[in-house]
Design a protein that fits this description.
This protein is an alpha+beta fold and 50 residues long. The protein has one domain. The chain has 1 helix and 3 strands. Strands 1-2-3 form a 3-stranded antiparallel β-sheet. The protein is globular, with a radius of gyration of 10 Å.
């Protein structure tokens, strides 16, 4: 899912992607950084589909 908003990780105002489990939002940059390490939400550790 994506929508305009504020990234909960870095605070950027951008198109954000939402975690289905906890509802936290990530900008594309933060999501890519997270996916390079692990495919889990850094807030709730819910698995994120690649």
């Amino acid at each position: 899912m994506s929508d305009k908003g504020i990234c909960d990780k870095c605070g950027a105002k951008a198109k954000v992607y939402l975690c289905d489990s906890c509802g936290k939002s990530f900008c594309k940059h933060c999501l890519q950084k997270t996916m390079m390490k692990i495919a889990k939400c850094p807030f709730c550790e819910h698995h994120i589909e690649k």
